[in-house]
Write a structure and sequence with these properties.
An eight-stranded mixed β-sheet has the order 3-4-2-1-5-6-7-8, sandwiched between helices. The chain folds into two domains: 5-199 and 396-412, Glycogen Phosphorylase B (Rossmann fold, 3-Layer(aba) Sandwich), CATH 3.40.50; 211-394, Glycogen Phosphorylase B (Rossmann fold). Helix 7 packs across helix 10 (304-310). The two termini are 27 Å apart. 47% of the residues are buried. The protein has 15 helices and 14 strands. Helix content is 41%, strand content 15%. The chain is α/β, with parallel strands linked by helices.
Length: 418
């Protein structure tokens, strides 16, 4: 076995961070669950992240056996936006190298996440000659193309993403769509990219679960229907499209609204600084559907199965999703997914089989899909069953096996010369 000790880098966000924050989402879940599975299989895993709170311990072993989260001091001990981390990447790299030296640790491979961590991995390869595998999660070029947060995608991000391609021994793409984007926008070599999707804990998000009990616990009538959104509250997620679709339903099928509830899991409904949250709350009132909508705030992974179990369907109308972890969790819970036909969602969700594809930003198309699900319970049940079956192929044990083959290949290759 060539691989025993693996370093994961997640500079700007910790896998221990509470879910539903501005920059906590699928990537945090991916790193945490992947590391837990690797640790269970006997691999030694160190996850390096930047300390953002004075009370954070330097080493936290709460994720699971053989897994440590190591918080390094680089810049102020306070939360920073992703872009603000850039100025402290050199400090982070130096601290990571110092930690390894102090504890006499040699890693067999580095697995970096997001462009900031890729910058660090490049420097480690320069200094240590260590192989590294990288996963982008999102691409600066793609965010610019859809004009969402375009002014937050500085040239240095895209230039760094290009440099990572030059130095990385392998790139992990979550879907064939991401592979195509890397080849088209970044001129990446097909040989350098391996497509391996994220996984899901099929024991935690399981099917069947009691819908009636779950709905009762959430204050939803057993004979009602619940639509669910789970994710960060930001314009990119297009939650406003769901609100507009409900407004369409009010005109086209008002009888369906009598037993319908829409629940939004994510963000902080009480925050006065969250402009997108305030905009959505105000929008629901202006559209006359606020009595149907609940903003329940962010929930930890341990709580999410109850929400999925209570849902008739889960809606993911995003403008851009590199993969769609929420869609996979919903499918594993036996719930059909209505998803915009973008990025990884178009591969994960099978149209007319495990859910529906809709064009992004088209509330009328979304309303049509909602009507079909609410008026045909047998079809909804069959779609949920198909979704649960499809999700089994994404069990973490299967995903880890595929990743380990890549790590072993990379560790056995001669060091690439740049």
């Amino acid at each position: 076995m060539l691989i025993e000790r693996i370093a994961l880098i997640s500079v700007h966000t910790s896998p221990l961070a509470p879910m539903g924050g501005t920059k906590t989402g699928g990537m945090n879940v991916y790193i945490r669950e992947l590391s837990r599975e690797l640790g269970k299989q006997g691999y030694q895993i160190d996850i390096f992240t930047r300390r953002s709170h004075e009370l954070e311990p330097e080493i936290d072993a709460s994720i699971g056996e053989n897994v440590r989260v190591i918080a390094l001091t680089a810049g102020p001990t306070a939360p920073l936006s992703p872009a603000d981390h850039y100025d402290y990447l050199s400090d982070f790299t130096a601290e990571m190298m110092a930690f390894a030296t102090l504890h006499s640790i040699c890693y067999d491979v580095v697995y970096s996440h997001y462009w900031l961590s890729g910058w660090v991995a490049v420097k480690l390869k320069e200094a240590w000659g260590i192989r590294f595998v990288h996963m982008y999660h999102t691409l600066g070029h793609m965010k610019k193309r859809i004009k969402i947060n375009a002014h937050y995608q500085p040239d240095r991000r895209i230039l760094t993403e290009m440099r990572i391609l030059e130095w990385a021994d392998r790139i992990i793409a979550a879907t064939p769509a991401e592979q195509a984007q890397l080849r088209w926008l970044y001129r990446a070599s097909r040989r350098q990219i391996t497509v391996i999707p994220p996984g899901v804990d099929t024991g935690h998000f399981r099917y069947p679960m009691s819908s009636n009990e779950a709905r009762e616990s959430l204050g939803i009538k057993p004979d009602g229907n619940m639509l669910l959104f789970v994710g960060r509250i930001e314009p990119l997620k297009a939650v406003d499209t769901i609100l507009e679709a409900l407004h369409v339903l009010r005109d086209r099928a008002p009888e369906l609204l009598q037993k319908l509830h829409f629940m939004i899991v994510g963000g902080d409904p009480q925050s006065k600084r969250d402009r997108e949250m305030a905009r959505l709350q105000d929008m629901s009132v202006k559209l006359g559907i606020d009595s149907l909508v609940s903003f329940v705030g962010a929930k930890e992974q341990s709580e999410l199965p109850r929400y999925y179990a209570a849902a008739t369907a889960v809606i993911i109308p995003s403008d851009y999703e590199s993969f769609g972890m929420v869609a996979l969790e919903a499918m594993s819970s036996g719930r059909p997914v209505i998803a915009s036909q973008v990025g990884g969602l178009q591969f994960l969700v099978r149209d007319q089989e495990t859910g529906y594809h809709i064009p992004a930003r088209e509330p009328i198309s979304l309303a049509d899909c909602i009507i079909q699900l609410l008026t045909d319970p047998s079809k909804t049940t069959m779609m949920g069953l198909s979704a649960a079956r499809a999700a089994k192929a994404y069990a973490w044990s299967e995903i880890v096996e595929r990743l380990l083959r890549v790590f072993e290949e990379v560790a056995g290759e001669k060091l690439r010369k740049i």
